[in-house]
Design goal:
The complex is a heterodimer of chains A (about 425) and B (about 230).
Chain A (H helix, E strand, L loop, with lengths): L1 H12 L1 H33 L7 E5 L3 H10 L8 E2 H8 L4 E13 L2 E6 L1 H6 L1 E2 L3 E2 L2 E4 L7 E4 L1 H7 L6 E6 L8 E13 L9 E5 H7 L17 H6 L7 E2 L1 E6 L5 H9 L6 E4 L1 H44 L1 H9 L4 H42 L10 H32 L6
Parallel strand pairs in A: 4-11, 8-10
Antiparallel strand pairs in A: 1-13, 1-14, 2-12, 3-4, 3-9, 3-13, 5-6, 7-10, 8-11, 9-10
Helix pairs in contact in A: 1-12, 2-10, 2-12, 2-13, 10-12, 10-13, 11-13, 12-13
Chain B lengths: L2 E10 L8 E9 L3 E5 L6 H8 L7 E6 L2 E2 L5 H11 E4 L11 H11 L1 H5 L6 H11 L15 H13 L5 E5 L7 H18 L2 E6 L10 E4 H4 L5
Parallel strand pairs in B: 3-8, 3-9, 6-7, 7-8
Antiparallel strand pairs in B: 1-2, 1-4, 4-5
Helix pairs in contact in B: 3-5, 3-6, 6-7
Classes of the chains: A alpha+beta (about 425), B alpha/beta (about 230).
């Protein structure tokens, strides 16, 4: 206890260099834990983008491509599936529910998704959360549109606003379906998933704006359908979907269902299991996080090296102190213990301050990161990873403490009670 | 009367350097007030290091209070020093980050055997009593950096004396004081050593103080290695 008392008083006496050292360790530890938090947040928000969906089905192509355009609103679909094929699978006995997606259009840079009421009923994200409406109702009429939270916020749309849909995917479509204005009827609550950045219309709406576009080009002058004509139609026939999400009646059937879809003879199509595909995708981009972690570990090492330097350089001016301690009966081991303990105190204080700093920064920065990057970083009590990091930092401080301590040990043995400077 | 210090055939050197100490015989009876003098470089501080058990002799016997330090392990010598020896340096005696009280209390906090010598009296009370005797009772709460050199040396004397060690070693403790203060300091040190029955080994290169001691040892005469 005497040695601990001495170590603390000695550190307090060198308050300036102590606080600099603790500060630099704290910053590096905060960086390490902060990066870990962001990493976990990213990974979680990534793999929680969609949940409870057993299969995603689309035209044959790349697994990740299908995932990207169906779930993340990135990249473009290659082909559509016919409505009849979709219905056939939707009524398959092993299928409990489906959500059809019609993709390919955008509104001022945001993807437009044609779907139906099943989207609001079955879509789940982040561990089973449902799509909830912040305002209004779910779109159900041909020209109804429901907005993701970010779309409404960024474009400043409210209920009742008129929205034009652009053909193609881009910031500015040069072929606007201006003649078919949609009306905002609902705004979805923020989900922190790509849902926030999408515009939802009905499949009928998608069909309506593409009347006369069957060959992929705008209708010839004189052949355009007017709004009145569309509204006068009793029923709009849906001809195709881009992809659809499947919930199986029984999870055990998922693999067989996937194989059956992949082997389907009617048209080339494929099914992916979202969890597996997300994992595969994350592994593709995951090496970056390993690199990031290595960098932050080195930053912590640099912080600890700073401590080492500061302790080591203080030794020379502390030779007198060591001689006094020797004179009053401290053995060389006590001298070692004193310096190792100082090092442990510094690294422990730095680690704890770093952890505290992470929570301060998280609670201050969470809403900003959420708003700016769409990344939700949960604030949790320190978990095993954090404790492991803190333990490792203190252990590293303990080991590093032996460098100045052994130097002091040798000096103490050699100097005896004389101080040769 | 038994001997406080009984050195036979002591030889010591740092590493493979030439011998610094080569002392065939040196004895000091208990309760003596010895004045050990020698010019700079005559091995005074090294001899004190050996007598205090900080340095291990290469050859010979160093019996202090009838224990042969040469046969003890490093840890045993540290414990021996902590219990039986009080040490005063030439200057800068105090640990800067401890209060005056903590500096005085250091030896008894360091070693349980030395603490047991307080005979049940509290550390604080004992330190305060000693400080009173040396006229620094009002300085206990101060930071050591606020003290004058003379005050610092008295604090160091208190630290050497606390727990009543049998031997008090002082390595030129008065060289940083002016003459009047030297005598005053010595008087106080003598009085405390006497009341505790401690043997005092006082080292100096300044022979003007010699007359105040009961015994004079000239290091160049006993140390054959001295240049």
């Amino acid at each position: 206890m005497l040695v601990l008392d001495l170590a603390l008083k000695s550190l307090r006496n060198r308050a300036f260099s102590t606080s600099l050292t603790v500060g630099s360790i704290a910053l590096s530890v905060a960086l390490l834990i902060g990066v870990e938090n962001v990493r976990v947040g990213m990974r979680e928000s990534f793999s929680n983008t969609i949940s409870q969906t057993d299969l995603i089905v689309g035209a044959k192509g790349g697994t990740i491509q299908l995932l990207l355009y169906s779930v993340f609103g990135m990249g473009s679909p290659t082909n559509n599936l016919s409505w009849d094929t979709y219905r056939e699978w939707a009524e398959h006995p092993a299928v409990e529910w489906t959500i059809p997606y019609g993709l390919g259009d955008s509104h001022r840079g945001f993807r437009v998704i044609g779907t139906n009421e099943d989207f609001y009923r079955y879509y789940r994200y982040r561990g089973g959360q449902e799509i909830a409406l912040a305002r209004g109702r779910a779109g159900s009429e041909v020209f109804d549109v429901t907005l993701g939270a970010d779309v409404a916020a960024e474009l400043g749309y409210g209920l009742g606003d008129q929205v034009a849909v652009t053909h193609g995917i881009g910031e500015v479509g040069f072929l606007n379906h201006d003649e078919m204005p949609f009306t905002v009827v609902g705004i979805i609550e923020k989900t922190f998933t790509p849902v926030d950045r999408a515009v939802y219309v009905t499949l009928e709406g998608i069909e309506a704006i593409h009347f006369g576009w069957e060959d992929g080009a705008p209708p010839m002058p004189g052949e355009e359908h007017t709004l009145e004509e569309v509204l006068a139609m009793e029923e709009i026939e849906i001809t195709q979907v881009t992809s659809f999400f499947v919930g199986a009646t029984n999870r055990r059937d998922v693999l067989r269902l996937q194989r059956d879809v992949n082997d389907y003879q009617g048209e080339p199509m494929m099914a992916v299991i979202p969890g597996l595909a997300l994992n595969e995708m994350w592994q593709g981009i995951g090496y970056a996080e390993t690199g990031l972690r290595v960098v932050t570990i080195f930053v912590v090492l640099v912080g600890l090296l700073g401590m080492l330097v500061s302790l080591y350089t203080s030794l020379n001016e502390r030779r007198r102190e060591m001689a006094i301690l020797r004179a009053v009966g401290a053995g060389p081991k006590r001298i070692v213990a004193l310096l190792v303990l100082e090092s442990v105190c510094l690294s422990a204080a730095g680690a704890i301050a770093g952890l505290a700093l992470v929570y301060v920064l998280l609670s201050a920065g969470q809403p900003i990161v959420e708003a700016q990057a769409g990344l939700f970083i949960p604030i949790r009590p320190p978990g095993s990873i954090e404790l492991l990091f803190l333990g490792a930092v203190v252990a590293a401080g303990f080991l590093m403490g032996f460098v100045p301590a052994l130097k002091a040990y040798r000096t103490a043995l050699h100097d005896g009670l004389a101080v040769r400077v | 009367m038994s001997l406080a210090i009984d050195v036979r055939g002591l030889r010591f050197r740092y590493g493979s350097d030439p011998w610094v100490l080569d002392i065939p015989e040196l004895t000091l009876e208990r309760g003596a007030r010895a004045f050990l003098f020698g010019p700079s470089g005559s091995g005074k501080t090294t001899l004190l290091g050996v007598l205090a058990g900080v340095l291990k002799p290469d050859e010979g016997e160093v019996r202090v209070l009838d224990r042969d330090l040469a046969s003890l392990s490093g840890a045993q010598r540290d414990a021996f020093r902590a219990e039986h020896i009080g040490y005063v340096f030439q200057m800068f005696n105090l640990i800067p980050y401890l209060s005056v009280l903590d500096n005085i209390a250091l030896p008894v906090r360091m070693n349980a055997a030395r603490r047991a010598r307080l005979d049940g009296a509290g550390i604080k009370e004992t330190a305060a009593l000693l400080a009173d005797h040396l006229h620094i009772g009002d300085l206990l709460k101060k930071r050591v950096t606020e003290l004058s050199v003379g005050q610092q040396q008295r604090v160091a004397a208190c630290r050497a004396l606390i727990g009543a060690p049998e031997i008090v070693v002082a390595d030129e403790p008065t060289s940083s004081l002016d003459f009047d203060r030297r005598e005053a300091f010595l008087e106080l040190l003598f009085a405390e050593c006497e009341s505790a029955g401690a043997t005092l080994v006082f080292v100096s290169h300044d022979r003007t103080l010699e007359g105040m001691f009961s015994r004079t040892i000239s290091l160049p005469d006993v140390n054959k290695a001295a240049l």
